[in-house]
Amino acid sequence: MTSDAAYPFVPALRNPAGSPIRELFKYLSDPGMISFAGGYPSAALFDVDGIGAASAAVLRERPAECLQYGATEGAPALRQVLASLMAGRGAPVAQDELLVTSGSQQGFDFLARALVEPGSVVLVEEPTYSATLQALRLAGADIRGVQSDHDGMDVAALEAMLADPSLRPRLIYTVPTFANPSGATLSSARRLQLLKLVARHRVVLVEDDPYGALSFDGAPPPSLLALCASVPEARPWLVHLASLSKTLAPGLRIGWMVAAPEIVRRAVIAKQVSDLCTPPWLQLAAAQYLEAGRLPAQVAREVAAYRDKRDQLAAALGQAFGDRIRFALPAGGMFLWAALDGIDDAAALLPHAIAEKVLFVPGAGFYVEQRQRATFRLSFASTNLAQIGEGVARLARAVERAG
Amino acid sequence: MTSDAAYPFVPALRNPAGSPIRELFKYLSDPGMISFAGGYPSAALFDVDGIGAASAAVLRERPAECLQYGATEGAPALRQVLASLMAGRGAPVAQDELLVTSGSQQGFDFLARALVEPGSVVLVEEPTYSATLQALRLAGADIRGVQSDHDGMDVAALEAMLADPSLRPRLIYTVPTFANPSGATLSSARRLQLLKLVARHRVVLVEDDPYGALSFDGAPPPSLLALCASVPEARPWLVHLASLSKTLAPGLRIGWMVAAPEIVRRAVIAKQVSDLCTPPWLQLAAAQYLEAGRLPAQVAREVAAYRDKRDQLAAALGQAFGDRIRFALPAGGMFLWAALDGIDDAAALLPHAIAEKVLFVPGAGFYVEQRQRATFRLSFASTNLAQIGEGVARLARAVERAG
User: Could you tell me which residue ranges the Aminotransferase class I/classII large domain spans (chains A, B) (predicted)?
Assistant: First the structure.
């Protein structure tokens, strides 16, 4: 094939940047590599038998429904059980507020299509999920960062931005609970302030909540969606994205969106033209699995394992780097966010880490502009407990080599 | 929830039109309804045992690969077997020309994102697949219809449009083999003319080919992709979309795109921000099924059944309407496209048909502008052979009522 074709790509795709995380995947094929990089749950914990049994049962009982096209909104059986699950999390939802998506990321993609035009202002907490930045860049958004700390998004800073009549954002994006990449959790006081703020300014707020169930110390804080019971005027402006990827299995690609019916209707149309429906077989298998009541025990296993890994990682980092390393202990989720004194740019450290056979994600890819290059993200979920100490020792050798 | 929210929807979604076909789905829950409407394959023919066995085997042998996140480009095992399948169809493809998509429609959606901006001109044969029109409208395209007849797109008419310097289209879209909705197949002479034309004008041509394998009279004509062996200068400009939806099962949502590496790379980035990957378990199950060599026998069963149904439908229509009905017999696929003398608008006939408990799709939804309202689409794939005569009798009563 000749390569001199000059395709009329849209501007956002003329010089596209791939995901900074997925660029690291090529190193994962090295069996000696220890990876703190991807946001992968632990495959060792997958409930393979439970998922296999549920999928075999629904294929046997409802083969045509499993294998035929399904409703774009989602399989009725799954929509019902997801509504129960949300009610159990303190957030009852009506059926016309609910859309099954192929992973929660697809929900954000459809929302961006419904609300974001080239040049639209979108506010995101910084640091933030890199694929969200990628989706917004593809949509041509004018992305602005809102600073955050270990209590989550700085709501006072957000308020100042919302008061600026030149901005008028289309969307605000946050991962308020056990955030990716920061591990931070929005405080209760800020949650209420945030809801009141979006209701007053009539701006759509996206609560991306894939990690909320992975709480290490008792129940997680109520989601923004659940808190709308106290701030009902915020409910039409809140879009809640959730997923089974971090609790059951990412390969099923089952997520869901809870939003006002008008927003769901637009997302359904985006889904009609994209993948038409999430595979009905996997939806029915997930519904069967959830109905059988297997998820709570599965989540409990994950929470116990991830908490141990977090503790192991934190202890190993403290031992290896002492006062040079700064991080706050995440209260759930999969990520530890750190900065090392004496390291100006974690990206420059990465080649040395790869040489030592350990992977992490440099912080720069999680920022819009004000990149804090000393930062980096360590995922503790998919690494074996036994590998964590060795991985940190390799990181320490990489820092020495870089020094 | 209050309903006075005024969301800043993008223009294409401000007054969205849902799919004209999916609007009919609500009537399918009536068990007495006979449907010639949706483009559904026959669920009675699904190889449930074969699919169940393949999926159980891969889950047993490679559980982590099935349930973890997978490569955005597609599972290596499936990509290899799809490359073999394409080679068997006379179109060898390299791995960097191939992307697994969640149904072939997702491939078109990603292509539209890569190449279509608001106002971009896109040429589509008329009548054409309604979801393609919907995707292009969402992208803000300036859609222009190219006339067609029973030999497919009128390539001379296309040539005149390409010669118009005010148009400069970003894309041309065609379903050249057993088309949806027309059932038409592009002639061999036009195929070669079309390839030479797009190479000369350096414009991307989308060959949507979900039906090619369902050929009733021997082998189908070579795809445009295969014919690029004779017109190699066209290959960089051709995008081929294919699917297992009409042959294996739509619920698996397995499609693929073959295109120049530069185009595939852009589609991969669109997929990274949308659904990240097609469910790896279903990809591996499909790969296992294809490797086991079960697809040809499955397709043979479908071809035999659909050919009988086409013949039954054609005979019943002739008997019921005589000279009043005009249609050409499709040589494959799932659709018969007809017009009835004395019917000015098939959409006005639809309520009477629904009252008689029979469904079809009025033709208007398949046109950009020059709607031939007397036309309508009948799918013969999912109806039982026994129901076809009764369905046509109901249609005849509906025509009487409408008269």
Answer: 64-395
pLDDT of residue A21: 77
Chain B residues whose CB is inside 8 A of the A69 CB are 38, 40, 245, 250-251
In 3D, which of A346, A351, A353, A350 has the Cα closest to residue A396?
A353
Please report how many Cα atoms fall inside a 13 Å half-sphere around the Cα of residue A166, on the Cβ side: 2
Burial class (CB in 10 A: 0-12, 13-18, 19+), B207: buried
Verify that A195 and A304 share a domain, yes or no: no
Do both B86 and B193 map to the same domain?
yes
CA dihedral A335, A338, A343, A344 (to 10 degrees): 90
CB contact under 8 A, B114 and A10: yes
A249 touches chain B (CB under 8 A): yes
Query: What stretch of H or E contains B143?
Result: strand B142-149
Confidence of residue A173 (pLDDT cuts 50, 70, 90): very high
Residue A140: left if φ>0, alpha if ψ -120 to 50, beta else—which one?
left
Nearest CA among A180, A123, A188 for reference residue A157: A123
B223 with B321, same domain: the answer is no
Contact residues, chain B, for A276 at CB < 8 Å? 103, 105, 131, 253
| Strand-pair category, B171-174 with B204-208 | parallel
Q: Is this prediction's ipTM beyond 0.90?
A: yes
**CB of A33 closer than 8 Å to CB of A358:** yes
Condensed to tens digits (0 to 9), the pLDDT of residues A303-352 reads 999 999 999 999 999 999 999 999 999 999 999 999 999 888 999 999 99
End-to-end CA distance of chain A: 46
Q: How many A/B residue pairs have CB atoms within 8 Å?
A: 255
Q: Hey, which residues does A35 pair with through a beta bridge?
A: A359
Are B277 and B316 found together in one domain?
A: no
Q: Indicate if B171 and B319 belong to the same structural domain.
A: no
Instruction: Judge whether B198 and B225 are in contact, CB under 8 Å.
Output: no
State the best of A274, A283, A384 to mutate against chain B, taking most chain B CBs within 10 Å: A274
* Distance of alpha carbon A264 from alpha carbon A226, whole angstroms: 18
Largest CA distance in chain B: 62
- How many domains does chain B divide into? 2
Query: How close A32 gets to chain B, by Cα (Å)?
Result: 18
Chain B residues whose CB is inside 8 A of the A278 CB are 253
Q: pLDDT tens digits for A193-206?
A: 999 999 999 999 99
Low-confidence ranges of chain B (pLDDT < 50): 1-4
